[in-house]
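User: Let's play a game. I give you a shape written as tokens, and you guess the letters that built it. Ready? Here's round one.
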């Protein structure tokens, strides 16, 4: 588990605007960086610039503080509320880069998943997901989640799903 920075220290390092959801790096001093020259270099390169702008593979925004990556929505919560979230942070409008405080809520996993965008509208796509450019088949059999492969085409995935469903009976 990654170390959680004290929210007060976060407030010294980065400004967060709860109305826009945007972050800006603040100037750092000797307390945060050792030596005059490194402080001057860091401040000239980063202070006043946007922070937490790097996208994750999952589509969220992240940034690094003292060589540890943090997701922007969790940092926003910690800065705004003065404590780290107890659970998962849900983006109410389902836009993963919208870190305005009115769009964030601290919820349990099930509530967060209930608010997820459905991957497929069609009943035809049950048990089929799309990840990293491939169609993946997963199905529960006797209470256990089983993986039935990754396929280049939807037709192959549907065929694998149909075989898996027969095993279910």
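Assistant: Ready! My guess for every position:
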């Amino acid at each position: 588990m990654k170390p959680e920075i004290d929210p007060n220290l976060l407030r010294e390092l980065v400004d967060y605007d709860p109305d826009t959801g945007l972050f800006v790096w603040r100037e750092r001093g000797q307390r945060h960086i050792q030596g005059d020259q490194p402080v001057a270099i860091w401040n000239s390169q980063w202070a006043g610039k946007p922070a937490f702008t790097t996208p994750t593979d999952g589509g969220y925004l992240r940034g690094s503080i003292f060589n540890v990556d943090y997701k922007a929505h969790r940092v926003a919560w910690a800065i705004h509320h003065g404590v780290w979230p107890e659970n998962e942070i849900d983006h109410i409008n389902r836009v993963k880069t919208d870190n305005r405080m009115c769009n964030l809520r601290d919820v349990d996993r099930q509530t967060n998943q209930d608010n997820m965008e459905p991957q497929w509208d069609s009943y035809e796509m049950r048990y089929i997901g799309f990840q990293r450019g491939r169609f993946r088949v997963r199905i529960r059999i006797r209470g256990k989640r089983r993986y039935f492969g990754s396929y280049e085409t939807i037709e192959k995935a549907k065929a694998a799903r149909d075989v898996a469903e027969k095993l279910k009976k």
